[in-house]
Specification:
It is built from 20 helices and 20 strands. It is of the alpha/beta class. It has four domains: about 240 residues, P-loop containing nucleotide triphosphate hydrolases (Rossmann fold); about 45 residues; about 210 residues, Rossmann fold (3-Layer(aba) Sandwich), CATH 3.40.50.300; about 70 residues, Helix Hairpins. A six-stranded mixed β-sheet has the order 5-6-7-3-8-9, sandwiched between helices. A hairpin with a 2-residue loop joins β1 and β2. α19 runs antiparallel to α20. It is globular, with a radius of gyration of 33 Å.
Length: about 625
């Protein structure tokens, strides 16, 4: 495959913090690559550099000539006064530029002004090549899939999630040669995520993407790039392959580290015993020691967020939603909803955007009042609420002060306590980072800090609204393990299917218009059941169509008092069927005899069983046809 992008020895630092150093990689036409790294390691920065929006210290970036690139930022922006459709049409890409040029040329021709015929022909040819004639239709189709239906709505009236979806649609509509996506699944509901998954899997565009949705990553991407300790590692396979090879790399590194440590100990002993008079004679060995020492002092810091925080005592009564209803105008979110939450339950809430998932959590937390009904909450329940909006940090506060404002010490149970600084270290905030100002943190680091402030209050009931957004995969893994072992209750709203499969034991599916389905099992169990329901409904619809067609045909046929006579061809078929059915029945009897005990060879028995099934089906088909024809005799 031809290369569309090549990066050589790229280095990027912010002050004394190096994100990556001398990294090199390439992207070929049609290649789909995921970029993985811990929060704060430079994923978004690297994408921004490739999109030309950020500078770098050293290295080269080479794009193929005439390469068309589309870039989805984490925080996109548009002119707030534009409508959704105008924002899409005003986006600066080759297709929209061609449309504008074509309209200008057409206007000149209409007013009788001179137009360069060659240029006009070139524009028409390029419009054909880029399918620009269908551009507005594609805009409406893709926006519809992403549930942006009011195309005349002003950009300033959109929520943050809707704005991200408009930006995603803009990138997809243009169908560039290379598409760069920063967290494309954030703010998409599960149906949209699955649609995008299929869209990208079937596309010929090259793709470089940052995502923490592991199912999405595994099914869409063919290669993985990982930034780890300022270096780049390349894995030629999907996420499952990456996990396997990552483990091998860590084990190999640790083996090499052990060998270096052994050699280091020997060399250290030699250095201590080395007489000063012989120092010049062994200079090469002394120089080599410095290199060995550096290697031996390396540490594979595969740190994990350890969340073994004590949970407060939880009684038997949790909460009861007593016939709760909630509407906004004619739009119904909850309709006389009853639910009795049990002890240690782990409930996942799924559904399309706008069906009331977050509103339900806010009603449980007392932030939003129901129209009718009540939430009866147990006296021992201590909520820990992680909202989509997140904690609004003071940007000028230091990380350590955010935690100290809540508590100087955190209880882990069994008499164990941690200081605020020690607790932050468990969340991967190194001592030097703890004294950084909040404004210096990446989006994922802020989310991690917010999670820290929720859990350190020792809740026994966690209410989590989209906790997986912006968290790196390492943090997600440990959060999942914590929730699985959490001695309390959990309600989680998430569009991360992998996360839901690991954590929850049953699902509340918000289906819209106040309809809520309670389903036992994880997300995949629910999705399989839902798919079966869809397939069954399609089959029922097809049967109904056939039935209606037959009834209409029968109704339209003229009624005749005399039965129709058999044609010569039908008479011949009728006689042939009698002989064929008799022959098939005879073969059935023969096989039944063999299967009853005379045949002992296992393979032969398998073949006979398969043939028996075929015979039964053939006899049924031919008998039905024989009966149809017999009515004409």
């Amino acid at each position: 495959m031809a290369s569309c992008l090549q990066v050589e020895n790229l280095t990027k630092s912010f002050g004394d913090k190096c994100l990556f150093e001398n990294i090199s990689f390439g992207i070929a036409d049609g290649q789909r690559i995921a970029l993985i790294a811990k929060n704060g390691a430079g994923k978004t920065t690297l994408l921004s550099i490739l999109a030309g929006e950020e500078d770098y210290q050293t290295g080269t970036i080479s794009f193929r000539r005439d390469l068309r690139v589309g870039y989805l930022r984490q925080d996109p922006s548009f002119n707030p006064e534009l409508s959704v459709i105008d924002a899409c049409l005003s986006t600066d890409n080759e297709a929209t530029a061609l449309i504008r040029e074509y309209e200008e040329l057409t206007e000149l021709i209409a007013t009788g002004k001179h137009v360069d015929a060659n240029r006009y022909e070139q524009v028409l040819a390029r419009m054909d090549e880029l399918k620009a004639w269908e551009y507005e239709t594609r805009i409406k189709q893709i926006l519809g899939k992403l549930k942006i239906l009011n195309l005349e709505q002003k950009i300033k009236e959109l929520s943050g999630g809707q704005l991200k979806r408009v930006a995603l649609a803009n990138v997809l509509i243009a169908e560039p040669d290379l598409i760069i996506l920063d967290e494309p699944t954030n703010h998409l509901d599960l149906e949209m995520v699955e649609w995008l998954e299929n869209f990208l899997s079937n596309s010929k565009m090259a793709l470089l993407m940052v995502t923490h949705d592991r199912y999405f990553l595994d099914r869409v991407c063919s290669d993985i790039l990982e930034i780890d300790h300022e270096k780049m590692f390349v894995y030629r396979g999907n996420y499952s392959y990456y996990l396997e090879k990552y483990q091998e790399r860590v084990e190999n590194f640790n083996s090499e580290l052990e060998r270096a440590n052994n050699l280091y100990r020997k060399e250290l002993d030699w250095m201590r015993r080395q007489p000063q008079a012989r120092a010049t004679k062994a200079k090469s060995r002394v120089d080599a020691f410095a290199d060995i020492e550096a290697r031996a002092k390396q540490r594979r810091e595969n740190k994990q967020v350890e969340l073994e925080v004590k949970a407060a005592y939880l009684g038997s009564k949790i909460f009861e939603a007593q016939y709760v209803s909630k509407s906004y105008g004619d739009f119904k979110l909850l309709d006389n909803f009853y639910y009795n939450f049990s002890r240690y339950e782990k409930l996942g809430i799924v559904g399309k955007n706008g069906t009331g998932k977050s509103t339900f959590l806010k009603m449980l937390m007392g932030i939003v009042k129901p129209d009718s009904g009540t939430f009866d909450i147990g006296e021992t329940v201590a909520f820990g609420y992680y909202s989509q909006d997140g904690l609004q940090f003071d940007e000028q506060m230091k990380v350590i002060d955010v935690v100290r404002d809540i508590a100087e010490e955190i209880s882990l149970g069994n008499g164990k306590k941690l200081s605020a600084s020690q607790f932050l270290q468990l969340f991967l905030f190194a001592p030097e980072v703890q004294y950084n100002f909040v404004y210096k943190l990446s989006g994922g680091e802020r989310r991690r800090l917010y999670l820290c402030t929720v859990l350190m209050r020792n809740p026994n009931f966690l209410v989590l609204d989209e906790p997986t957004n912006d968290l790196d995969i390492a943090t997600l893994n440990v959060l999942e393990e914590y929730l699985i072992g959490f001695r309390g209750c959990v309600i989680v709203v998430s569009h991360d299917r992998f996360f839901m499969d690991k954590v929850v034991d049953h699902i509340l599916a918000f289906e819209g218009n106040g309809k809520i389905k309670d389903y036992p099992g994880n997300y995949t169990d629910y999705r399989d059941w839902k798919q079966l329901q869809i397939e069954q409904e399609q089959e029922d619809n097809e049967r109904e169509k056939v039935k209606n067609k037959v009834e209409k045909t029968t109704k339209d046929q003229p009624v005749s008092s005399k039965p129709r006579k058999m044609s010569f061809k039908e008479k011949t078929e009728f006689e042939k069927l009698e002989k064929e059915i008799a022959g098939l029945e005879a073969e059935k009897i023969q096989i039944e005899t063999q299967l009853s005990g005379t045949e002992t060879d296992a393979e032969k028995i398998r073949q006979l069983s398969e043939r028996m099934g075929q015979l039964m089906e053939l006899v049924d088909q031919k008998t039905m046809r024989w009966l149809e024809l017999s009515e004409m005799v």
